Structure formats: C-alpha cells, structure tokens
What we know:
Blueprint: E1 4-9, E2 12-16, E3 19-23, E4 28-30, E5 35-43, E6 51-58, E7 61-63, E8 70-74, E9 79-84, E10 99-106, E11 109-116, E12 119-123, E13 130-131, E14 140-144, E15 150-157, E16 160-167, E17 173-180, E18 182-185, E19 191-196, E20 203-211, E21 217-226, H1 237-250, H2 253-258, H3 266-273, E22 278-280, E23 290-299, E24 302-317, E25 320-329
Parallel strand pairs: 1-9, 8-24
Antiparallel strand pairs: 1-4, 2-3, 2-5, 5-6, 6-7, 8-9, 10-11, 11-12, 12-13, 14-15, 15-16, 16-17, 18-19, 19-20, 20-21, 22-23, 23-24, 24-25
Amino acid sequence: MLPMLTVTGVPGLIYLNGRFCGETGAAALPLAREGVQYLELRPFDPSARGAVLRLKVVDGKLVEGVSGDAFAVQWPGGWIALELRGKASGPEAPEAQPSLLASIHMPDGQYLLVNEGGIPSFGRDADEAVLLPLEGTSEASLKPLNEHGLCAAEGDCAEGRFAAVLRTQGTPEIVHCVAGMTAQADSLGTLRCVKSAGDTVGHATLSVWAPDAYGQYALHSREAAWQSGGPHWPQTPQETARAWLEALQFGAGDEAAGYLLRPEHGQRLVEMVGAFDAAVDLPEDGTEGVRLGVARLEGENLLAVRRLDFTLARQSSVQGNWKIESISEGVCD
C-alpha cells in the first residue's frame, strides 16, 4: 500500500513533483514508497509565502523531517499529515498601546512594570527596560524584598500565574522567573511554583527556587503534587491505558504498576513500548478496542506515532476499576 499525504494550513494549490494535485485541505496524495519527492505550495493570496518541501520516504515512511514553516505527523498505517504554517503578509493589526501594570519606589528611583502586548517589561524607562519571558499578562503587582536592591513581581500569564525576582541596582535585571498553575515569591525572594502535567490523573510538580550562598538562584526542592489536591483515577479502559503511559512519563513507577493486572510484567511492557514523548489519540479507523499512539520526535518538525493495542480486565482497586492485561504493537491494514 502506498503512503498517503494530506496537506493542511495555508490555503493554496498543491503540486507534487510538478504535477497539480488539488487544494490545501482537500487533496490526499499517494507517495512513492521510496525516494525523494518535492511538494510545492502556491498560495491563493499573492502576498503569502509559497513553499517547496523536500520529502524523503523510506519503506513508506517519512524520514529526516521537514524544514521551514511546516510540521509533519507520521501516523500508523502510512498516513502522513503535513501542516503548512506560513502566514500571509497582509496588513498588520495595530499594535496595542503599552499599559502600566504596577510601579514601585526603590532607592534607585521609580520602577515600572508595563504590559507591552501581553509581555511584561520592567525598568525605570523604555530605554533600559527588560522583557520578562512571559506571554498573556494583563494583571501584576510589585513588592520590595528584604534584600536591598531586589523586588518581586507576581501576576497572571498564559500558564496561569508567574513570580519573578528583579534587581533594581544599576541596570534592571531579571534574577529568576517561574510560571505555572500557581506561583509566588516570599519576602526572602524564595519562589514557589506548581506546574500541572496536564494528564488524566492530575499530576503536578511543586518546585522551590532560592538563592544560594553567592546569590545565584538554584532549585532548592522538587516534589510530586496533585493538580486538584488529590488524584482523579481513570474510570474507563481507555483512560486507564492513557494513565499508565502518562505515569511512565511522569516517573511514577509505583502508580504505573498499579494499573497492571500482573505488575511483575511491568518492566517487559515498558521495554516493549520504548521511549516516547507523548501519548496521543489515534484517528478513527473503524476498529474496536482500546488503542493509543505513542509519539516521538524523529526529525526536524517530524513526529512519528506508533500504535499500541491494549487488553484490559475489570478489577477494582484504589486506582480505578480496570487493569491492563496485555499490550501489543498494533498492525494497520
């Protein structure tokens, strides 16, 4: 069976090896199982950038990745999904005017925390201001710290909340900045941050950062936590399979063993699954049963997905009502 390529993203016409194949989002292109092929995008918008991509296929699979403003996912069964991400260079939206988030009087003068299009900047004036590594900020505050010449900023951001220690002696400087579900700085400048793993059960990590004897910030402690104060155990076979994979990623070995009908087989199953970067849902193909994909970055802008089929048995425990009996690598027709 020939591998199939679908192309989404920038609206335009698609050419494969110089032959017209249809429009972005509507064409499914068969590729040769071996060799180098060239894909060309001719955007409908004359001000948008076109693209020519070199695709190398070996044994029906895309290898070596894709360059430029594109991202590819190699799904099981020979489907390659390619997204072209170039944007039209049309009229730019007017820039939002900077707005004041907070101000503080320090020995060296008055310092301002300013919102510049969702990114906070800190300093006495625009010429010396430094940008904090954050996005989506619309509310924040400043407070002095016990150590002379330092203050702390706290506020909202795209990740939830942020906290930063800022130096006000001489040129403004970001000493350390954290962001997560929650983040705060105490009067000594110790930063505490809870980051969510974004998984089924609700894992999170509590990290504490503090200055060392030389005033350099270092990770003081890191421990496992729960996003909502406690676990949300899986309720279905599909959730149980995903929770097992996510527990492996989180490094929760005891929890992962608790999802298995025979925990003594855990190491063999881990070795069979191998290293992966994320657990993903697979496209519907009409088959029944519990199945998930494990994705791994295999090249530049190329994510390769392997299919795993799970067999589960009903058995109640504190970690849910289902246990994984066996796992096999799925074979696609």
